[in-house]
Each structure stands twice: as C-alpha cells, then as structure tokens.
C-alpha cells in the first residue's frame, strides 16, 4: 500500500468511527415525555420544552462512594440521582418542600405502589380544610397528587410520612412547592420505579 492509499484508508476509518459516534444512544431523554397509557390511565404529554433542560432525565457522571441502586436527593439543586455502576447516575429533575417543610436525612424504600391512593395527613387537613373530603383517601387517577407511582420512605421501621412520587404538576419541577415530599414528573417516576428496589437507601441532602 502506498502513502496515498494508506492516507485514504485512514480517512475512511475515521469517517466510519465518527459516523458510529453520531449513532450512539442519546443520554438525555427529552423525547420520553410523550403521552403514556399505563394501567388503564392516560397520562398526557408533558410540554417538556417548557421545562429547563437541566431537569430532563439524563445520565450524568456522578462521583459517590454509595453503591449502585442508592438514591441521592439534592434538594438545593433540585436533582434526584439514581446511582449506577461505573461512576454514572440517572438524574431527574424534582420539586421539593417549600420553606418550613424541608427535611434531610437517610431513609429506606419500604414499599412501592403503582397508582397509589393519597391520604392527606391530619396536619395538612387542618391547614387546608377543603381536603377533609379526602380524609379516607383520594382514589388513584391522573389528578391524584401522588401521580402514577409512589415510593414510601421509612426510617428505623417507622413511616417518615415522606414519599418519592409522581405529580400532574409538571411546572413544579425545579421549585420548592410541596409539603416535604419529593415529586417527579410522572414519566420520570415510572422510570425510577422500575429501577429502584424495596430496601434501597435514600439520602436526602440540603
């Protein structure tokens, strides 16, 4: 092979490599927020173009000593990280507790529920008497505050009262608006639900 032929071959290999790179799977899942039919319920499309791109589900580099499967919630940055192998994490945008309702600490996922019933705590009903009609529980549905999925957080065998859950209020992501629970877009909580296991460690940081 002469020099000219060798150079041509090198260029062809480089072009093939670059073409292959262009076809690698995307690591930002902006296209995953379309309408979803799930367990008989119809979740509407989220207008994801109105949500800051940093809050779109994505795989990121993440340096931690926690083992894969651990969930780390950064309430100040409004991110939830699901720790993956090889220094990676799936990152989700979240909504967090408003002033006076923040919390931090370590808990475990004790239960997972699809399309859960929502029962407002007595303290919440006292603050918002209109919720009294749901004292016995609000049935599952697309308007239910817990959304499509809920992960129940316990500490020392006791229910903390806090949840990682979906929400129909996609515009609350990136904000401090909840009564302490960590909320995700419904399409994201469905994804997290499939990844997270009962017993998984959950760390909530301020």
Automatic annotation (TrEMBL):
It comes from the Bacteria. Residues 69-205 form the L,D-TPase catalytic domain. Residues 1-22 form the signal peptide. GO terms for biological process: cell wall organization; peptidoglycan-protein cross-linking; regulation of cell shape. One of its GO terms (molecular function) is glycosyltransferase activity. Pathway: Cell wall biogenesis; peptidoglycan biosynthesis. PROSITE patterns: LD_TPASE (PS52029), PROKAR_LIPOPROTEIN (PS51257). Keywords: Cell shape, Cell wall biogenesis/degradation, Glycosyltransferase, Hydrolase, Peptidoglycan synthesis, Signal, Transferase. The keyword Glycosyltransferase applies. GO terms for cellular component: extracellular region. The active site is at residues 165, 181. Belongs to the YkuD family. PANTHER family: L,D-TRANSPEPTIDASE, L,D-TRANSPEPTIDASE ERFK_SRFK-RELATED. This is ErfK/YbiS/YcfS/YnhG family protein. The lineage of its organism: Bacteria, Pseudomonadati, Pseudomonadota, Alphaproteobacteria, Hyphomicrobiales.
């Amino acid at each position: 092979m002469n020099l000219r032929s060798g150079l041509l071959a090198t260029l062809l290999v480089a072009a093939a490599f670059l073409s292959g790179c262009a076809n690698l799977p995307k690591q930002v899942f902006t296209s995953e927020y379309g309408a979803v039919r799930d367990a008989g319920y119809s979740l509407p499309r989220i207008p994801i173009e109105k949500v800051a791109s940093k809050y779109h589900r994505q795989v990121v580099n993440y340096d931690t000593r926690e083992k894969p499967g651990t969930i780390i919630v950064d309430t100040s940055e409004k991110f939830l990280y699901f720790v993956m192998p090889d220094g990676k994490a799936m990152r989700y945008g979240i909504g967090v507790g408003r002033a006076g309702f923040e919390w931090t600490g370590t808990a475990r996922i004790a239960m997972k529920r699809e399309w859960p019933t929502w029962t407002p705590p007595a303290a919440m009903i006292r603050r918002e008497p209109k919720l009294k009609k749901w004292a016995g529980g609000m049935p599952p549905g697309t308007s239910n505050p817990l959304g499509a999925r809920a992960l129940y957080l316990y500490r020392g065998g006791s229910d903390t009262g806090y949840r990682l859950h979906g929400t129909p209020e996609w515009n609350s992501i990136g904000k401090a608006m909840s009564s302490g629970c960590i909320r995700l877009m419904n399409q994201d909580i469905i994804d997290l639900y499939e990844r997270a296991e009962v017993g998984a460690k959950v760390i909530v940081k301020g």
